[in-house]
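ok here's Elongation factor 1-beta, seq below lol
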Amino acid sequence: MSANLAKLENHLATRSYVEGYTPSQADVTVFKAISAAPDAAANPHVARWYNHIKSYAAEHASLPGSSTAGEAFIGGASAAAAEEEEEEIDLFGSDDEEDAEAERIKAERVAAYNAKKANKPKTVAKSVVTMDVKPWDDETDMVALEAAVRSIEQDGLLWGASKLVPIGYGIKKLQITLVVEDEKVSTDELQEKIAEFEDYVQSTDITAMQKL
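and the structure came out like this:
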């Protein structure tokens, strides 16, 4: 097993030996786990320590202490690599789980939005219309004409205010307002129905239309 140089570098940054204040078997154990002289640029503290312990090579067998403390710095690199690899795998797994969770939340939000939209009352498009209804002549009964017009009843149709407007030669036209639901009432069809009162009505015109 090789030594964990990164862990050893951190340890020796504030210490001269692996354990205690003099060379020991803990230093020898770690020293033997290092196959070649450490790179001084990458691990300056390990390199300093390595050269120092190397100078005791003839005394390695007789140095005091236990190797136990040194074992903490051996095999750690592989374990760290394995742990890092496992962490990477977990992270990828976590990404997949996060993606799945994000998709689930998104689906729930879409479903909630659609449900809210379905339950929301539909906005009814309406228009205010001003219509002119012209009689045949000045002898036409305008009261009867208006009564005939207002007799038309239809879902989505609401008759409003009206007035008689002079158009010349003693003739007056009926100007009437109405509110229609756009999807239910066709103004063209409504004009055709009014034109059927041919005893009174000569023609009709839509003079204004405004959306509500």
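fwiw The two ends are 84 Å apart (CA to CA). kinda neat tbh
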